[in-house]
Amino acid sequence: MKQQRCKMAATMGSGVKVPRNFRLLEELEEGQKGVGDGTVSWGLEDDEDMTLTRWTGMITGPPRTIYENRIYSLKIECGPKYPEAPPLCFVFPVPPFVRYVTKINMNGVNSSNGVVDPRAISVLAKWQNSCSIKVVLRELRRLMMSKENMKLPQPPEGQC
Amino acid sequence: MAENGESSGPPRPSRGPAAAQGPASPPAEPKIIKVTVKTPKEKEEFAVPENSSVQQFKEAISKRFKSQTDQLVLIFAGKILKDQDTLIQHGIHDGLTVHLVIKSQNRPQGQSTQPSNVAGTNTTSASTPRSNSTSVSTNSNPFGLGSLGGLAGLSSLGLSSTNFSELQNQMQQQLLSSPEMMIQIMENPFVQSMLSNPDLMRQLIMANPQMQQLIQRNPEISHLLNNPDIMRQTLEIARNPAMMQEMMRNQDLALSNLESIPGGYNALRRMYTDIQEPMLNAAQEQFGGNPFASVGSSSTSGEGTQPSRTENRDPLPNPWAPPPATQSSATTSTTTSSGSGSGSSSSSATGNTVAAANYVASIFSTPGMQSLLQQITENPQLIQNMLSAPYMRSMMQSLSQNPDLAAQMMLNSPVFTANPQLQEQMRPQLPAFLQQMQNPDTLSAMSNPRAMQALMQIQQGLQTLATEAPGLIPSFTPGVGVGVLGTAIGPVGPVTPIGPIGPIVPFTPIGPIGPIGPTGPGSTGSGGPPGPTVSSSTPSETTSPTSESGPNQQFIQQMVQALAGASPPQLPNPEVRFQQQLEQLNAMGFLNREANLQALIATGGDINAAIERLLGSQPS
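Predict the joint structure of the above. Result:
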């Protein structure tokens, strides 16, 4: 499967910029290897997805905030223009993909449909193609720790 | 199937197991793979069969991580692994990493063991007010007083992260209730390194002479300090803000309960005087005596447990415990968590260095301090209570009747011993000072919220002025002016400074500034309010650093006059201003009074610099 992907990437041609699929493959590998401290994780939603578009991410709520002890699942869509264009993120993906969904109350996230507002989150607003899914997840986690967010009351866990 | 080219003849129905037992060949059947399991804190490697289910995997993990399987949440590639899934299903192969989150009910993951220890300590301490563990939490962080104020000072001095300035908007009580501040503080690597070194902490504590006295009186304390476990626990407590809050809360409860039982107040008072007061002084001394040196140690070491100190003092209003000592120290303690913010010790600028003054000023200039003051002003009842506590009254009376005693107390303060000038200044003014404190007007003035507010406004105004028009004031040390005022305003705890200032307040709002003036000539021709001279406030003396008294006075008087719209500032007679210094230079052998005076004027009253000038000007 990986070889298939690599072939696909190769056929996309390589200009000066790293082609999209290369990037996404790299990110996939990184997500699987679990770099970092384990507080964020990401991977393809569907392993058979050849377009590498749909990703899932996971953020553990940072300690000493109101988000602590919670795990948030995100849905991330890397469009065709990725990495030039920022990905779309939804903090709670729609069932039935996940067993349960934990909603979040946080600045920059639409509380009804979970859309992460790309204008509100700085990484997305000032997206550069060196940013990645990992960066987005980490940034969201960091924002959870910010003064404005860390005390916002959260809905009970596991709301579908 | 036999003709498939297999070497063996008969078909092998049990191909799976055979293949599994086969040598070396990597079939699709279960082989052992190594999967790394990573938590935010730890990383472990597990060898599991490839086809195992997530449930089985969790069981292996639960043994290694000592948790229950239902507490474990496994995440791979952004997906949560459900128990009935298999590792293969999620594409977990050899060498990959899976993230683990251990859900614990009330503690953040990975910290389950420490808080339980702390909780144990906490409950024991809560139950026995005089217990050693309580002492520990207060004692082991004597510099707690430095705490927030210290940190505030630090940030103003540019030593710590900018986050502090935002965070200082809250009182420590709010600090306790809002984790953000504690988090910020605790995340300061400096703080953490300080806190994580029990040896260092112990050294710091032991290095304080007052602490040593305290230890002599209460040997249990030394046992506590030497007990690494307790130290470590306390440090952990200090580091874990959530734990701190818990502890504080419990201690509050315990103390308030204690207070209500008959004889409880006395017990608390005893506890306070025996333990906390010297601690307070110790902390203050160290803090004020050498702000920069101790700033790292004192201020950062105990901010967490400071609340325990201040809260202890709340039911025992004894701001007077060695009034000069508290005056001279430059600690800012934050308010207690119980009750309305009765801030503990005020910050009076030390009489020693400009740095100290700066430090103090910066402390006061922090919004945190101001909000403290605000709370004080809003709660005159508190001050009233404190001042009218019979305990305090008797102490003040005895002090006033026995000026020697007061002088003795003052002299005992290490800060003062280091600075005989200050002592000299203090001594004659002590009786008047004490009397003022007893003056009911003082009490009422201090409990007058508007008065306090006026004081605060002045302080703020001075501060603004300092930042806006520093050129206006030559040799301006923001700390001093503000510090002095801060002294005036600050102390809910060591009410000392407020005392003399108090009666002035009714005069004019400018009153408080005045007291600073009269190191030499009281009114020095300033058109300012007469109040200043009346107060003859000692605290102002203590606050204004002796060596810096010249420029400070000058500035203050200028301020006073500017505010009063009086005549243009006139310098007090330098000779009178520098009287102290002149006498010292004389004693040292510099007999040329004129030259001394010139040097002193040039250096603004700094004796050491003046000496160098004098020596430099003399042919070798």
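The first strand of chain B starts at residue 32 and ends at 38.
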